[in-house]
Design brief:
108 residues; alpha+beta; Helix Hairpins; TATA box binding Protein, subunit D, domain 2; 2 domains; three-stranded antiparallel sheet; nucleus; TFIIA_gsu_N; RNA polymerase II general transcription initiation factor activity
């Protein structure tokens, strides 16, 4: 299974990248190890979300912009409402990045 670097810009991905950068700068780990850790992070995040998350969410909002490039959709919504089974959350602006998981399963 392949992986995309979608989760590196998440809060946890940025934290991991910052920590790895600091360790490489201090000489604690070699740069190649940092790259391997990031590649494993990409793979593990995809696998965890696919196998562990079962919640369904619906959302509604004003679609400001959308793009489709390299099999990745990007949606920018304003005044969006997200609904799960027992919770409703309103946000002023949100960026949604989505890709087809089937493209990750294709051999390279």
């Amino acid at each position: 299974m392949g992986s995309l670097e979608l989760y590196r810009k998440s809060t946890i991905g940025i934290g991991l990248t910052d920590a790895l950068d600091e360790m490489v700068t201090n000489g604690s780990i070699p740069p190649l190890l940092a790259v391997r850790v990031l590649m494993q992070f990409d793979k593990s995040m995809g696998e965890a979300l696919q196998s562990k998350v079962r919640a369904k969410t619906t959302f509604k909002g004003h679609l400001r912009t959308y793009r489709f490039c390299d099999n990745i959709w990007i949606f920018l919504l304003e005044n969006a409402t997200f609904k799960t089974d027992n919770e409703v959350q309103h946000v002023d602006r949100v960026k949604i990045v989505a890709c087809d998981a089937k493209i990750l399963a294709r051999p390279a």
